[in-house]
Amino acid sequence: MIGPMDFLYTAVAIMGSPLWLYRLLRTGKWRTDWPGRFGHCQMAHDGRAHHRTLLIHAVSVGEVNSIRLLVEKLRQQVEDLRIVVSVTTDTGTVRAHQLYDMDCSVVRYPFDWSCCIERFLDEVRPDGVALVENEVWPNFMRSCVRRSIPVGVLNARLTDHSFRWYRRSGPIARGMYSRLTKVAAQTEADARRFYELGTPGGAVCVYDTMKWDTAEVVDEVAGVDELATAMGIDRTRPVVVLGSTGDSEEKLLLEALGRNLDLQVQLIFVPRKPERFDEVARTLGPNVTRRSRPSGALRGIPDHGRIFLIDTMGELRKAYALADVVVVGRSFNGWGASDPIEPVGLGCPVIIGPDHQNFSDVVAALVAGGGLVVAQTADQAAEHVNLLLANRQQASDLADKGRQVIRARQGATDRYAHLVLGMIGV
Asked: Using a CB cutoff of 8 Å and minimum separation of 24, what contacts does 46-52 make?
């Protein structure tokens, strides 16, 4: 059944084709699961009898990681529950297969054309849908309502920017959000925004974020020694990790740290997106040691001011475990920041930039508890790095207080699990 949004999507796709084709070719993203994007999920059926099927949709790596404990709890509570995890991005799909292949079906989330959505739902046959954070699409909601499939949003959040954009879309947004069965928001502000976009008041509640629960408060991470040895990282010298960095940040932070840090300090950059690896390597200069080319550690690089690039996926956590100080990326370039909770849970003293709107409540809680430093500029971040490297007691206190905040805020996942099971009648 073709709807008005299909005509809009088609017109936008045709008009924007020169741009998105160029981007696909430039980034290499044309090598993707095209059948899956058009709804052919080819999901494997395990042959077991299932009482209910739950579809959990997580957009990318962050959302995929955030539902790890939720999936575990749901599996423990209901043995015959069939869980299908759908993912949008390539990197998120890889991560989902790593985490969930043993217990769940992992599929690609399709484009929001009606034909793609109908094909997808015919294959998955969900009894309920849990969208993580805010991945609400018009045709998907229309199809689910027509099939009487309840749809809820877990760990729900809406930034000010997203809220203004959706509000300007008028009836399109109201048509989506008014059809939601449940919205369990991270904060009161998020809940209010969903309500103002049309979600029924009785469907909205505040449960905090599951990311507090997925943060493991541990002192050791498997594979750290292998990473350090392969890359030639000197464990006796200070290490600063720049984690999940985004566009233009590597140059900005490298210059700021170069102006402020002792040459003995080692810098490890971990870009968020794999398509930027080569670009970042060029930015960091000819003496950078790349994880994908471990022989670089033996090329006669001077024994000072070493710069390392982890240009492989799934090793950010190992890098954090090596750090004496962590600077969280995507927080100095207007992208809203990456997740600061994971390095805090690993006992790292953590610094984040001024652009942290994606994690505003998390940052506020950690700052209030004395467990996080907010730097207004890259140079200020470098100054804080210097202070923390020079004063190990101050660094240790910062890390300890951050862990205390995490422990105090954990427990939301149990509430989300109860809500989801109630939504699908289990």
From this structure: 48/80, 48/82, 49/80, 50/80, 50/81, 50/82, 51/78, 51/80, 51/81, 51/426, 52/78, 52/80, 52/81, 52/82, 52/127, 52/128, 52/424, 52/425, 52/426
Domain borders along the chain are 4-8+25-215+411-423, 224-409
pTM of the model: 0.82
CB of 194 closer than 8 Å to CB of 185: yes
pLDDT in the model for residue 17: 72
Report the CATH number of the 4-8+25-215+411-423 domain: 3.40.50.11720
Q: What amino acid is encoded at 267 in this protein?
A: L
Task: Tell me the backbone φ, ψ of residue 156, rounded to 5 degrees.
Answer: -65, 135
Residue 329 sits at φ, ψ, to 5 deg, of -80, 180
* pLDDT at res. 289: 94
| Residue 272 C-beta-side C-alpha neighbours within 13 Å | 19
Report the alpha-carbon distance of residue 382 to residue 258 in Å, rounded.
Answer: 9
Those residues of the chain that have pLDDT short of 50 are 296-304
Question: Which of 260, 202, 239, 282 has its CA nearest to residue 386?
Answer: 260
Do residues 56 and 27 lie in contact, with contact meaning Cβ atoms separated by under 8 Å?
no
The yes-or-no answer to whether 4-8+25-215+411-423 and 224-409 have a common fold is: yes
Query: In whole angstroms, what is the distance from residue 343 CA to residue 311 CA?
Result: 19
Torsion, CA 345, CA 347, CA 348, CA 353, rounded to 10? 30
CATH class of the domain at 224-409: alpha beta
Alpha helices in 200-313 (DSSP H): 211-214, 224-231, 249-260, 277-284
Q: Shortest CA distance to 107 belongs to which of 40, 48, 52? A: 40
What distance in Å separates the CA atoms of residue 174 and residue 170, rounded to the nearest whole number?
6
Give the separation between CA 272 and CA 336, rounded to whole angstroms. 13
Cβ atoms within 10 Å, residue 417: 21
DSSP state of 344: H
Burial of 170 (0-12, 13-18, 19+ CB in 10 A): exposed
Best CA proximity match to 360, nearest among 130, 187, 146:
187
